[in-house]
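Researcher: Let's continue the batch. This sequence belongs to Glutamate--tRNA ligase, and it's 468 residues. Same format as the previous ones, please.
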Amino acid sequence: MSVPRPVVTRIAPSPTGYMHIGTARTALFNWLYARGRGGKFLLRIEDTDRERSTPEATAAILRGMRWLGLDWDDDAVSQFEQRHRHAEVAHEMLARGAAYKCFATQAEIEAFRAEAEAEKRSTLYRSPWRDADPASHPDAPYVIRMKAPREGETVIEDRVQGRVTFRNDQLDDMVVLRSDGTPTYMLAVVVDDHDMGVTHVIRGDDHLNNAARQQMVYDAMGWDIPVWAHIPLIFGPDGKKLSKRHGATGVEEYQAMGYPAAGMRNYLTRLGWAHGNEEFFTSAQAMDWFDLDGIGRAPARLDFKKLENLCGQHIAADDDAALLHEITDYLVAAGRPALTPEQAEGLGRALYCVKDRAKTFPELLEKAHFVLTARPLEIATDAGESLDAVSRGILKELTPRLQNASWTKDALEPILTETAAAHGLGFGKLAAPLRAALAGRKVTPSVYDMMLVIGQDETIARLNDAAG
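Model: Same format as before. Here are the structure tokens for Glutamate--tRNA ligase:
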């Protein structure tokens, strides 16, 4: 009885720009699948396009992965650095008779295609060198092409798309090694996946056609074919392919907008995958539940309202220390000033009363403005409207009563309500000038929470400032 191979998945982004949100979701699916099965999740940087690949883009990929919490096993692999291994495999296929040297020039190929288009016939290039006698080979530059099967079908058994068949007479003899000795993407991907021990290739369904051609390399080398799982792309709310016109498409943009990583993981996991009717879940639950059978075939649509709703739930549920750490990272990503030690300490005390119903970190920080600001407070115009002569007089009357009060809600509540009642007011009428005095804002956490967070001395000082 054969022992099943341990699960090994990978993500293989190209460092030619920012990390797309679709790439992040693909990475997440691979990470969840491997982590939930005690397997390995690997990272390969597909940097063979030397003109467009940049160190900055590679750094952005690593930052995006780290922000999302998608830790990978082993060192990240550079595809470019494996190019000699790729060339070695191409020559091995040549020796096996699964590939051949093609001496056709680019001009000859273009002339063939132009003629085929004019005559409205297939432009699929059939090289005359496929079955040529090696003795007739000229001393000239050549590429190495695969010998694609000419009859029958190539079948891809896909865990998401089902059984997908390709007519072999529609497959070309793809180039695997260029005339300058550099490998093509189609070869490099297969060699790397094999050498890295990848058992499951989970990637976007825009690669589905590639699977038919890449499977030829596995067959030619006698290698185990991985489990294929081609997942639908992410569309915008309008049902069209996600682009800049829909809003942010880069992972780091979402961090800079203040979405928590746990909320992003939750939302991206749910985007095109389902486990019953579960919407809010932790990463541990996702690892336990995630399976390829739960991935739908239809493109998923990005819904910012759902994203914000889930992020709000994660902010409310998160541990305060972890939340404070992530807010610190958010400020760096957004290019906003860092918190002073005093502000960080104050925010830590305030989190319990500001993290509920905040969908993003900017919203949370706005709610926490009262503890992040310093005297003298700048009072917003709409909040200042409540500080008329009557309310200022009440604040002036209130402060002596707070001097010797126990600083608990149970002790403060009767003092405030009795002061309001003495002027024929409900507490709600007193709350508005108190909010203005304590936060300089009209919308704030509860007056009692603000008083408890900023403390007795600061509360009295702010009330005295507002009373004038």
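Researcher: Any comment?
Model: The longest strand covers residues 40-45.
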